[in-house]
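Aggregate trends can hide what the representation actually does to any particular protein. The sequence in question and its structure tokens are set out directly beneath this paragraph.
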Amino acid sequence: MSMAVRSGRFVCGSRGALLLLLLILAGSLMILHRVVQSPLLNQYEILQDHLERQQSRNTRSTRTILLWSSFFGDPRWKLSWDTLGPQELRDELGCPVYQCEITNQHDFLPAVELYDAVVFHAAEMFPLLRPVPSQRSRHQAYVFATMESPGETKHRLDDELGFYNLTMTYRLDSDVVWPYGQLLDIETDAVVAPSERPHWRKPPAAFNDSAVWDLWAGKTKTAAWFVSHCETLSKREVLADRLQEFFAIDIYGKCGKLSCARGDPRCEEMLDTDYLFYLAFENSLCDDYVTEKLFDALRRNVIPVVFGGADYSRILPPHSYIDASRFQSVEDLAQHLNFVGGDQEEYVSYFWWRSHYRLASTSPFCDLCARLHAPGFSHKTQSYGDIQSWWFNSCRLESRIRL
């Protein structure tokens, strides 16, 4: 065998050994890297690194929300502009998390599937020419939004099974709760209600409000009711008729003989001066459903008499209202109203809550923006398989008080 051949074999053998050594070294380094990066040794650093990258992403990124349909003819959904940016969400709406854009302009982004959330007003039929987006991205949240009761849902929800990812309604089990009003603790400025488990202060044994005390003597009428929807699922009109067997009710609007022009300050002032009670009767008996009429009454010097499907202890302070559903019969309710209205100290005691709570309102888009920024939200898959059952099953047809 020649020297050249032996030399060639030596070189090939040396290269093979070197390659094998490099492979062993690379494998060892890879194993060492995985051991060093193992959660068994490095769990705090791994978590810290992930959270820092997530925080950096959240700080830089702006979420974009498209209002797909109008809100009872209002394309702005009672917002001030067609498009609001982070500055408006911070300064106008007071959102704690404000890195969002809200728009009703469908061409604000080049394609509809680029929006982080698309909001649909579920109380009305969708636009005929553009009922739903033609394209959809998996990262998007489709939002079922309404303030009306299920009885006012004017399109078929059984066509939208598995369509929605989030709900934005007055119901307290919604993903984004959209109430008609809130009560805040005056000392802490924290939102107390509506809430599934509000922590209320205990009403005092004795209480006096000089303004209400002075007004009581001039309140010569028992109850007022502003109403324009006359035949309802709740049969509130039947309850009002039965109550009139015991005392007079002044009914303003389409369902009564009296009228008061919208925006006339006298309409609200007379609740302070003339009436003992205001009938805050809802058109449907549905979970958590209370409307602006109740919160408007709380701003006046009048006691609201409520009738609806809500657990009012989750919405109002104790001893601040009279719940018709707590009474077995209309006669029992009427007797209680006559007692409260006829006792000055008892009547005034219903206003104790004003020393501890104040009324406020908030935009649901603040909470929606915060949810879109929540850590891990974009990695979570959620949809309502049967939105119709979720929505409709919150109501009942029969009231607890015998009508």
Remarks:
- The first helix runs from residue 3 to 36.
- The domain at 182-360 is CATH 3.40.50.11660 (Rossmann fold).
- The CA atoms of residues 178 and 364 lie 5 Å apart.
